[in-house]
Amino acid sequence: MTDDTPSRHRNFPTTHWTAVLSAATPGKAESRDALVALCENYWYPLYAFVRRRGYPREEARDLTQTFFVRILEGRYLNRADPAKGRFRSFLLSSFRFFLSDESDRVRAQKRGGGAPLPFEIRSGEDRFEREPRIDETPERIYERRWAHAILERVMKALRAEFAHHGRGDDFDKLKGLLIGGDGSYADLALQMGTSEGALRVSVHRFRKRYRELFRSEIAATVADPEEVDRELKFLVAVLSRRQQG
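Request: output the structure for the sequence above.
Response:
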């Protein structure tokens, strides 16, 4: 963020945007590492997008790989502008720009995706084959996989917190109650060697921490704190739309 950033935004954790903008500056290894981690977490929504557009699996993999090679080389980063919206929108618009460049597409097909990525994307087709066979636009599958990527990051962080405190087994038992499912508190309390009342307190805290992490992850993908609630509602709607479909 620059010095003329409004004060109400200065302490906002624009983590993803910061990684993108910092990586545009040569010689910052830590910034590139942050960008690599970001790309590794969010490559699959773009792979699913291009596959849903009808590209064959090999071409889709080459195009996705080449696009992220370009990103890690610093291409398209000059188009990044947090003031223009959400990180997911920037990533998709940059990918569309890349796909419209016929020369990039031809080179990607000829050389098998370009330089190697510092992370693996070969699992993309296996994941895509497990996608539900529903009438869904490329944009919608991108949105849905983006929402799931957010959820996966949140669950990974939550599991890590439990493991750090030596409670990895508790996490595995409690996660089934995370999204409102009641199950049998009495049976689970017995399994965990605690009272039903104590278990309900633990579940309440578990859900609260989950919501905090979920909100924090969303906050890292938008540039304005006022956008967090709108993005949260959007992602919940995307996930609900999938359940209804």
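Residues 88 and 221 are 7 Å apart (CA to CA).
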